[in-house]
Amino acid sequence: MNRNAKWILLSCFLTFLTITATAQNKKDGVVIINGGARAIFVKPAVQTQELPTHPKGVVIYTNLGQGEQAYNPNSGVGIVGPDAGQLFSQWVGIPFTPKGNHLVQAIQVAATYVSGTNEMGLLLTADANGVPGKTLHAWELSNLPDFGTCCTVQTRVYETGIPVKGGTQYWVVLRTTPSGTDTYGVWDDNFAGTEGTWANNTGQGWSSSYQTLAAMGVYGQ
Predict the structure, then answer these.
(1) N or C end of the chain, less CB within 10 A?
(2) Which residue range forms the structural domain that includes residue 171?
(3) What does the DSSP assignment read for 15-26?
(4) Domains in the chain: how many in total?
């Protein structure tokens, strides 16, 4: 088989995968690519009436924007259960390093929904050699807004607070839940398109790479 024929076959295969994944989610305007790893909304985003505000307290880390530019509603990384009908399952972690000692009392994430069970798990974890490690606190997210809408963010609070040390890396993780193995959700990209190290787990353990960072903020004392 010559090189041109190979490229044609590869192109047809990738097109088939994209069309198949798109058909499975049954959401108008949503295109799922890379075996479920990322999602794109190809229509103009729908503006919601609720605009995000930052929780009270110290901003420990954030890449969230303001108002109608809180995050990018047209692009994000898939949070994918093993029964979501994609090639791969996927959990995602975004790291942050506090400049000083703090108590984490609130986390915000730009989490949206495509198909399956409308819920996710939100974790604050320690670092384990450059990837998410031990869970320090966990929350549940449910009734998430549709992917392609902006700009409702999910805020979870823990008043007691989780102590974090300055100069030490931690992770915010979005994952599927044991009861949501069919979930396909999206962690929307930050509006500015800021890139950095992130981690994903497709069922074979955590690995890190350099990508556009999902939108999130960490707050406390």
Answers:
(1) N
(2) 3-220
(3) HHHHHHHHHHH-
(4) 1
